[in-house]
Amino acid sequence: MTDMNDKTGCGWLASTALGSVLLLASGGMVQAQTTNAAPGTQPAANGSITLDTIVIDGSAEGVNGIIESDGYVAKSGRTATKTDTPVAQAPVSLSTVTQKQLQDIKPQNLVEALNYTPGVRGGLFGAEPRFDAFKIRGMDLTYTGVFRDGLRQISSPNGLFRLEPYGLEAITTLKGPAASIYGASSSGGIVDVVSKRPTEERLREVEIQYGSYGRVQGAFDFSGPVNADNTLLYRLTGVARDARNEIDAVKDDRLFIAPALTWQPDDGTKLTVLGEYMDSTTGGTWGYINKYGPGGTSIGATPEYGGDARFNDFSQKQWRIGYELEQALSDSVTLHHKLRYSDLSMRQEWVFENFPGLGYEDNSGLATDTYLKSDFDTGALEHQLVTGIDYSYMKYTARQGSGPDNFTDDHTYVPEITYEEMQRQRSVGIYAQDQIAYDAWRLTAGVRHDWVDSEYTPGGDSYARDDSETTARIALAYVTPFGLTPYVSYGTSFVANPGVIQTVGSVAQQARPTLGEQVEVGVKYAVPDTNILLTAAVFNIDQKNATVYETSSGTNLLRQLDLKSRGFELEATASMDNGLSFIAAYSYNDVEITRLTPETEGKTLNSSPYHTASLWVNYDFQDGPLDGLGVGAGVRYVGSSFGDNVHTPVLDNKDRTFVDASIRYDFGKLDSALENVRLQVNATNLLNEVKQICTTGFCYFDEGRKVVASMRYRF
Q1: Rounded-to-integer distance, Cα 714 and Cα 205, Å
Q2: Which residues share a beta bridge with 324?
Q3: What is the pTM of this model?
Q4: Contact at 8 Å (CB) between 186 and 495?
Q5: Residue 110 confidence class, pLDDT cut points 50, 70, 90
Q6: Best-predicted range by mean pLDDT (125-134, 539-548, 609-618)
Q7: Half-sphere exposure at residue 17, Cβ-oriented, CA atoms within 13 angstroms
Q8: Residue ranges per domain, the chain?
Q9: DSSP string, 367-421
Q10: Domain 11-714 adopts which CATH fold?
Q11: How sure is the predictor about 498, in pLDDT bands with cuts at 50, 70 and 90?
């Protein structure tokens, strides 16, 4: 259906999408709410709560609770519960890449942005440029785990939306099952990327970049009010790039434009329209020629690129348009409604060891979500009740052809489509979640039911499947007055597996849904009188019917397996008044195959290291002769792992350590005429640590040293 690297790299899966177009109202009498106080806050005489001032770093963070942070430290957001819950009190594992982190680290893709997030495993396929492939807690989230502004990004087997980090405000990783409020999603969690939004403060920014592999990029970001009373705001963000990958045959070209408008005629109404168009080209073939032993088993990668620069473009056009509405229906009831339509078209040329192929894929989809947030009291209990319904629709078509007889001497491929497939999938879910506060106790309980129907036509055959599943989450936390919050939680997950055919006995059918459940015990500590947040969590995940390619027999066979993932994570984030900020993380993860094939059961899942750790430290000089200078340095450790599921010794992945660095200078500190001019240089893998990395029995190499210089001017 596609080249070997597509199969061993990202698998042949498509994601489902959930959203809503209807409104599910909560019943009962609604009363005025007394807001839950964060530790150290005091109620005013009228019963309201006065919160400490939150310093917002980044032009749009903090708008209506979408995301709030102080430097590297996330303060509150809606990803965990769809309410404005303080991060230090949320009874789940959350990690946020704030706007300050994005500016300091300058990631070039989603995986780089998550490099310092505990529990996230990137780099499974080296410098893979086509897809953002990663795991969380041992579970692959490439297709089922990426959400944008709280709605799933619609994806198909070879049509995944590409992400432009310059267009993001923040990235929040919610670890563990989140199906009770988001529906179909991985038991490992979700990654919710937050788009840049219009601001009430005027913003004018232009930036140019030059870096490794001939990277040349220009970008701009404009935002502010349209009228004098700030009822209409706008934002316009754009990127143009011409670049290559460390493999010269692989492009990294991009045109990106993202307009946004916010209309807020009164305090109770806010409508934000978010759009995007991107035209990008990268390499259609990724990977190196592997050496093979008996039975066709890979024994390692060679330095020889497997593709051909003369036939290698993977071009993709994508666009999306959507809106978010917040409408206060009373002092204690607010309607939230989101809708997004997306469309993607791709054309992929590929060659692997002189065997060419050509593929086309188009997908489109609608994702919507509507819910009521109702605040009320029942005696001594304070409630934040969320009741909602969401709906989604996804359709994709794919056409492919391959064969050496159609590859001419001048490396022109004569298209001959030999395979076509199509799929439609519809999903609807209803859910309810109640956050109950009693004194220092916080109870969160949610339940959801999903219905998913699918029609799949691969190569002329037709299959249909209907699935229905109930998921839930319950968590209990205790918020102490000195900032310590221990919690315990239990959650389940559900995700359908479209585009995957299994043979059960002698009957071919679509694969069964993937189910999961997790128990987690954790503690969070917001250190008093500082801007430091410490978190720790221990978890156990059982996942059934995950869909993977198994290569232990020497061929790519699509199978369903069961996994058990156990481990713990530690994280510390801080931004001090003296200019020092840091992110420190460690995770231990044991991912065991409990059902697949007789020779793999009981073994550790491939490319799943037991130990990962990272530390990023940044310092902005505050005064003296170095005022205006900022420096940052990071180290990332990835422990050893197995290269396939039968633990072939020659494929073992050795442990490795990567060093990153950043330096920047604000020239306004040197000369007032250069105010708001900043030069920045970022390096990833500064020491050029490059080793073989094997995943699912196929081997690649780590991405080498990469340096990017940028000049930014704000006016």
Answers
A1: 4
A2: 272, 338
A3: 0.89
A4: yes
A5: very high
A6: 609-618
A7: 32
A8: 11-714
A9: EEEEEEEEEEEETTEEEEEEEEEEEEEEEEEEEEEE-GGGB-TTS-B-----EEE
A10: Maltoporin; Chain A (2.40.170)
A11: low
